[in-house]
Structure formats: structure tokens, C-alpha cells
Amino acid sequence: MNKTSSKETSNLDLPQIDNRLWINILIGMVLGVIAGLVLSPHGLAIVGEELAHDLAAWIKLPGILFLGLIQMVIVPLVLCSIILGINQSGDLDFVKALGLRAVFYFICTTIIAVSIGMGLAYLIQPGNFIDQSLIQDFNAQQSDNTTGSSQRTFENLTIPDRISNLIPINVTGAIVEKNLLQIVIAAMIVGLALLSIKKNNAQPLLNLCEAGQSVAMKIIGWAMVIAPYAVFGLLCDITIKLGLDALSSMGAYVITVLLGLLSMIIVYSLIVSVVTQKSPLEFFKSIKAVQLLAFSTSSSAATMPFTMLCAEEKLNVKPKVSRFIVPLGATINMDGTALYQVIATIFLIQIFGDVSGVDLSTADLILLIITILGASIGTPATPGVGIVVLATILTGIGLNPAAVGLILGVDRILDMCRTSINVTGDLAASAVMNKFMK
User: Fold this and answer.
1) Is residue 85 within 8 Å of residue 323, measured between CB atoms?
2) Distance of alpha carbon 1 from alpha carbon 198, whole angstroms
């Protein structure tokens, strides 16, 4: 089979990714942090706290508009992309082989991420470096901070329940609830059904999907114009609210998580270089704009359209691969999230384990790994949900879920970092699967 570029195999009019986009995003990030530190009550505080928060609401407006445009088209884009991706292969055997290999690959990289996180957490033991004053008053601080989060729950279901809930009985409900995993599975079922019927009968719906995908991509092209301004606003808003105090007070924990995420970058580099024979530097140079965008938005779902564009335009991944792997990866390939959750869990056990009577045995550790693997796969690809899942994991091992209050201050910045890793993992998977399915 001759190697074919994405542009040769796709009828979709893709918006072009500006080669300077990553520079503009990086400038927006730097300026956003600087402006935030100047305005933040925890920084230079050149204005009062109330005025600073009022300004933050206006400054982040481009970011809200940007995310709104992306979220508006994400559901039709996922549905159309997966359906078309499956049918562009024209072969059920191809889809079966791609799906099995992708799921196996995702499970392997997630196990690697969890193992790295657990190893670093026990090696560094960040819980031993925590300021005791933070532990003494975290309950009082948490009473206000968790009011909104307590309304959100992560279903405590058995494994058979979780498997049965994968089938979207009410597709409209899944769309309203933005249950991306159910939407992906519904699209896969429809795509496989279309591939199994006569081409003449399937063509009208395929044409509709092509039109829907083209419209979604055009809107995304408009959103890309304001991406640097969106990044500036989002980073400025976060910095105004947090300052640098939150990071400095949890330094050992933050460093442990960042070291783990950096280790996953090295893992992806090795995988890409060995499987695709592509230089890791070339790979990361091609995807840097998407990484920065994922960091700024904290949402692999919001970044998904750009991830697909990057895979096809920069990495030359075939559309029938990228439009299957990227949406699937955005729902079940959460290496950064899994690594963070295991480090956070062990960190909190190191601090509160004696008080709560929690001491993990080898069997408990194995169960914890399995739990985190399952939880990371089911975690919605939206900002802030990881902390809700973490609270559920803590409850399962006998630790007070209110302990997450201790890490809420730094969770946002770490959420941004792990989202960037999640998206990097999706792009690495696309490149690897494109090579495997050659």
C-alpha cells in the first residue's frame, strides 16, 4: 500500500493551522501570567481584590467565547468524525484491527503512567514535606471551597453496571449531559452499521456527516483566530485568582506530579521514535501548538478538533485513523489524569493515613491501580472533573474525601499540565496506529 497523506484521502475542507500559532499562543500565555500577577491580590495587587476579580471576568471573556464556539460543535464533530472515519476504511476488518490495537495500546500506556506515578510518590514521599499549618486548618478552608463540587458525583457503580451504561439508551440525553464516552460508542455503532449495509443506502447519511463535519471545521477555523487572545484571558484569570502562593505551599507535591508528567513525555518520545522512526524533536515540534492550547483550556475535549487537525496536517496521519483514534483517545486515553490521581491519592494517604487508619497493603495497591485505571477511562474530558473522581477514589480506600481540599489550590494548574499530556498521548497514539495500520 502506498503511503497517502491525509489531504489525498479526505474530502474535508480543513482550516489551515498557522505555523505561527504556537508562538502567538505562547506569547498570550506569558502575557496572561504577567498581567495576572500584576493584578492579583496575591501578586503586585495594583488594584483592590474586588476590582481585580471584576477585571478577571472581562479579561477571560475571549477565552469563554473561544470555549463556547468549540463546545458548540464538539458533539456533531465527534459523531461525524467517527462515522466517517470508520466508513473511510471501507473494511470491517480494518476497523476491528484498529480498535483492538488502540484499546490495547491505551491500556498499556495507562498502566505505565500509573506505575510511574506510584513509583515517584513512594520515592519522593511528598507528604513528608507538607507544611503542618496547612493540615491544621484545611478543614475550615475546605468548607467553602467544596460547596460547588459536592453537588457533582462520580457514580459508584459495579463493573457490570458500568459496562451496561456504555450503551447510550437515550442518545439525546447523552448529548445533553455531554457524556462523551456514550457519544463515541453511539457513533461507532452507527458507523459500523453504515459500513455493513449497501453503499447506496448509507450514502445519504454519510453525505450529511461530511456536511456536518465541514461546518464544524469552519466554525473551528473561526475560533482559531481568537485562540491567542483566549489563552491570554484564561491564564490571566487563573493567575489573578491563585497567584503563586498556592504553588509554593505545595511545592513537593507539585514537583512530584510534574516529574511524573515529564516522564510520560519521555515515554511518548521513546514509543514514537521506535515505532514510527520519527525524531521525538520533530514530533513535538509538530504538535507544540496543540499542547499549548490543551494546557490553556484544561480540556482535551475542547482541544479535540485541533488535535485531529494536527494529526492529519502535521503528522500526516490518515483521516480514517485520526478521526477514530483522537475522539476515542479523548474519552479513554487519560494517562496524565491517571498518573495525577495515583500521586494525589498516595500523597494524601501519607498525610492523613495514620489519622484515618488507612495503610495500603500490596493487595490494596493492586486494587488501587485497577480502580484508577477504570476511573481514568471514565473521566469526562472537561476541566475540574478529575478532582471529583479523586474524591470518589479516596472514599473507596477509606480516606475522608474532604482531604482533596488540601490540593484544591494547585489542582487547576496541574489540571492544565495533565490535559496537555493527555492530548500528547492521543497524538502519539494516532502516529503509532497510523504506522501499525499501514
Assistant:
1) yes
2) 25
List the end-to-end C-alpha distance of the chain, in Å, as a whole number: 7
Cα distance between residue 196 and residue 46, in whole Å: 65
Compute the distance between CA of residue 227 and CA of residue 229 in angstroms, rounded to an integer. 5
pTM: 0.75
Cell of 35: 498581567
The amino acid at residue 352 is F
| Alpha carbons 372 and 258: distance in angstroms, whole number | 18
Cβ pair 142, 263 in contact under 8 A: no
- Rounded Cα distance between 360 and 246, Å, is 29
Written as nine digits, the cell of 270 is: 521513546
Smallest CA-to-CA distance from 363 within 390, 324, 397 is with 397
The tens-digit pLDDT sequence of the chain (438 residues) is 334 444 444 455 555 556 677 788 889 888 988 998 888 887 787 888 888 888 888 998 988 888 888 778 878 887 887 888 788 767 788 888 888 899 899 989 999 999 999 999 999 998 887 766 556 555 444 444 444 443 333 445 555 666 666 677 777 887 777 666 778 788 888 988 998 888 899 899 999 988 988 888 788 778 878 888 988 988 888 788 766 665 566 788 989 999 999 999 999 999 999 999 889 999 999 999 899 988 888 878 778 888 988 999 899 999 888 888 988 888 788 899 889 989 998 888 888 766 555 666 777 777 777 777 766 665 555 555 566 667 767 777 777 777 776 777 677 788 889 999 999 999 999 999 999 886
Count of helix runs (H) and strand runs (E) in the chain: 20, 0
Query: b/e string for 394-410 if b means 16 or more Cβ within 10 A?
Result: beebebbbbbbbbbbbb
- Which residues lie below 8 Å from residue 355, measured CB to CB, with a gap of 6+? none
Residues 6 or more apart whose Cβ sits within 8 Å of residue 15: 217, 218, 220, 221, 224, 309
Give the cell for residue 390: 479523586
408, HSE (Cβ side, Cα atoms, 13 Å): 21
Q: What is the DSSP letter of 150?
A: G
Residue 72 CA to chain centroid, in angstroms? Answer: 18
Check if the beta carbon of residue 242 is closer than 8 Å to that of residue 409: yes
Which set of grid coordinates corresponds to residue 167?
450503551
Q: Are 293 and 22 in contact (CB under 8 A)?
A: no
